[in-house]
Amino acid sequence: MPAHLIRSAALCLACASPAGANDPHAAPPLVDTIALWLAANFDLPVAATAPALVGVPAADLVAMRYGAGNSARAGDVAAVYDDGTIFLAEGWTGRSPADLSILVHEMVHHLQSSAQLRFACPGEREVLAYRAQDAWLGLFGESLATTFGLDPATILAGTACTH
Known about the structure:
Layout: H1 3-15, H2 30-42, E1 52-56, H3 58-66, E2 79-82, E3 85-89, H4 97-114, H5 124-138, H6 144-148, H7 152-159
């Protein structure tokens, strides 16, 4: 992992405070800190507003992602971003590198949306989200493959525009 990513992540984590801190001299909330890390390391503009974070049942996430009546199992979807809101599976705590990487992935989508970036297909917007998520996990000696079983071929297949 490049030293600048490690330093910036360490700085971000050291500065992060719980979301909703009311002290004007307190460090920024974790969501803002992740946004700053993404902006510094992945050339994304910081959004003017933070996304809402909402916990929902895992089955609802699957329906949001694939539509009602699909064959995906509850748990196949960790989070969904939609119009300024990050929907996370109930029970998400943000207390592990894996949990935080899910937030990193969805924050990429929030910053992309806030910047009104356009993509050739839905899969194309996932490329940077997976890259950022993998870089975050790499800071902790993990990867998408070791943590979520997502190897490069699977990611490529899921992010390719096929039209």
